[in-house]
Amino acid sequence: MLILRTGPVAERVRVREIGDDEGRRLVRIVRRDSGSVVTWRRAQMVLLPAQGMGVAGIAKVAFTSEDRVRDVIRNFNAGGFDSLSPRYRGGPPPKFALAQRREIKKIAKSKPAGHELPFSRWSLAKLADFLVAEGVVEDISHEGLRELLRAENVSFQAVKTWKASADPRYAAKKARVDHLYAIADGEAAAGPGDPDVVVCVDEFGPLNLQPRPGRQWARRGGTPRDPGEEPRRRLRATYHRTGGVRHLFAALELGTDTMYGHIKKHKRRGEFLQFCRYVRSLHPPKARIAIVCDNYSPHLSTRKDKRVGQWAAASNAEIAYTPTNSSWMNRLECQFTALREFTLNGTDHATHREQGSMIRRYIAWRNRHTADPRLRRIVKRANVA
User: Fold this and answer.
1) pTM for this structure?
2) Which of 71, 151, 182, 260 has its CA 20 to 30 A from that of 365?
């Protein structure tokens, strides 16, 4: 006769009979968004078997071991609801070590799918539950977790889209642009062939004659106006824009943080070269300059039109192109965000001369107030490179 040897059989554990009042109390604990995560996990492990789920299924739902589920059920059968609360000695809230705080921050910024969880994002409840289950912390409340993440400069943000570059020379172009920025920032020494001046060039537009949405200070709606007070200023609605468009050619000299701008009717290779000649004229001919720009066609030397390359070779200048679909590397982009916020939003210019004059006066103001707190805040928020 053949005798098969098997391992020890796990004990079958059942939760005791739960009354209606106890069932409602367990549901309240599981559904609430505050309190101890340990209590919430233990209440979940007791409520699920009362609803007919097996120990193996509960272990998968709670991301824990089957032995742990059995211990919680036994303790509840013996001690009731007192066994659900962790036995702490009291005192001030727990202080987490630096290593724990770093691990919590790291997990919060990671994807749940990377931890084999079927969630697209972390909620405070799921994150706190995972931290306790993984042993990162012994216990942490949802509000305590929120405060810790806020102190670590981690906030709940919308996911932004990103278009990856398919440029085969992406690494080389990005490395060159980064090196030029390091030279301009004083973080790297200029080597043979490196420039003395680094300038970012880009175009902003098209600039239409149109009302642009913005904000203003005004009397609250529904309150009576003072005698003689004019109605709230409004912007006209436009259906036909027959004034044509203009384009702003702008440059940002990184070493001095100075911005330049010319407004043109067209955005062609001739206008681009004309602006480059102006930027070149700001420095002695012996000083080598580098112009960082994107791959817009007027910036390139083509088989039929080699004027850009020929001008750069004759003018002691280098044209450094950002990779395709990576114009975000151009540090001038974030300056356009501030220009739009300070100068264009909330306006309705009647002529291009009026609009161009305001833009030029803004550039002059910006060069005199580079340390303005709000300007720096807007530029920092928009800056990527």
Assistant:
1) 0.62
2) 182
